[in-house]
Amino acid sequence: MIRVTRRYRFAASHRLHSERFSEGENRALYGKCNNPHGHGHDYVLEVSVSGPLDPVSGQVINVSALDNLVASRVVHDFDHKYMNADVREFQEVVPTSENILRVIEERLAAHWHSVFSGDGPRLEAIRLRETKRNLFELRAS
Amino acid sequence: MLITRKAEFSASHVCAQSSLTLEQNRALYGLAANPNGHGHNYVLEVTLEGDPDPATGMVFDLKQLKEIIHKAVIEPMDHRFLNYEVPPFDKVVPTAENVAAEIWNRLEPSFEGSPARLQNVRLYETDDLYVDYAGARK
């Protein structure tokens, strides 16, 4: 099996705050991330795909096609944005790294087969590095 | 238990198929299709799996692993133009996928009959693109 992993970056701000909790509960739950004015990170996103190695092209995936997909569906909408206000999904859902990964997976999955054939590369995992000290991973379903 | 040893080599390559036009190759491989080639500082991570020997406390002798990687990969590939100087890349396109698989094929025989087995080869073409290969059967 061959797995190809590509790394992308975007800079974005967020605030972790849920309407379901009181102000005190939000502060206790999310700590500094609950700061009312938000704060930002240089996020690093890794996208891993696996699939059959095309014997002629020598590729598992056309990396430029993946770049275009991730750029148009994720980086374009997330980079230099305040996610709570600027990214549709986070008007409903708290932009924790876990939820950001779910949103990114949904966005990639929704458009995957308009770019890649059914027997071609498969989205295997996405990882999000929020800071140097934390890394979140979602194995694609 | 897994142990991983890292090594680096610098090489140039062209990603293109001789049966395709320059335009078709550019559509498929992007900038990597430039006919004159271009280079990378490849970073290789070789991972072995095994149980530590009760006497030595080692899964595999890391000095020996360094030598195996050096002989099988670094010596033939470092500061080379892969398409011209490193078979089978005169016939096979030296994409990161194919280079990783070739490195696996060159390394694997060294661990036959050894208590450690080759578990994974990870090849970074750049910081932002890497390939994992764990053998043909998986």
Order of helices and strands of chain A: EHEHEHHEE
How would you classify the quaternary structure?
heterodimer
Shape of chain A: elongated
The fraction of residues assigned to DSSP E strands of chain B is 25-35%
- Strand segment tally of chain A: 5
The SS-based structural class of chain B is: alpha+beta
Question: Termini distance of chain B?
Answer: 19 Å
As a whole number of angstroms, the C-alpha radius of gyration of chain B is 16 Å
Strand order of the largest sheet of chain B: 3-1-2-4-5
Summarize the largest interface: chains and residue counts.
A-B, 17 and 23 residues
Rg of chain A over CA atoms, rounded to whole Å, is 17 Å
Number of helices of chain A: 4
- CATH class value of chain A: Alpha Beta
Tags for this entry?
heterodimer, A: 141 residues, alpha+beta, 5-stranded mixed sheet, 4 helices, 5 strands, B: 138 residues, Tetrahydropterin Synthase, Chain A, elongated
What is this structure's SSE topology?
The complex is a heterodimer of chains A (141) and B (138).
Chain A: E1 2-14, H1 23-30, E2 39-51, H2 63-78, E3 81-82, H3 83-86, H4 97-115, E4 122-131, E5 134-139
Chain B: E1 2-13, H1 22-29, E2 38-49, H2 62-77, E3 80-81, H3 82-85, H4 96-107, E4 117-126, E5 129-133
Parallel strand pairs in B: 1-3
Antiparallel strand pairs in B: 1-2, 2-4, 4-5
How is this structure best described in words?
The complex is a heterodimer of chains A (141) and B (138). Chain A has a single domain, classed as 2-Layer Sandwich (Tetrahydropterin Synthase, Chain A). Helices cover 33% and strands 31% of the residues of chain A. Chain A contains four helices and five strands, in the order βαβαβααββ. The longest helix of chain A is centred in the last third of the chain and has 19 residues, at 97-115. Chain A is elongated. By secondary structure, chain B is of the alpha+beta class. A five-stranded mixed sheet of chain B has the order 3-1-2-4-5. The chains are: A alpha+beta (141), B alpha+beta (138). The A-B interface holds A 1-8, 53, 56-60, 62-64 and B 15, 17, 28, 30, 92-98, 100-101, 127-135, 138.
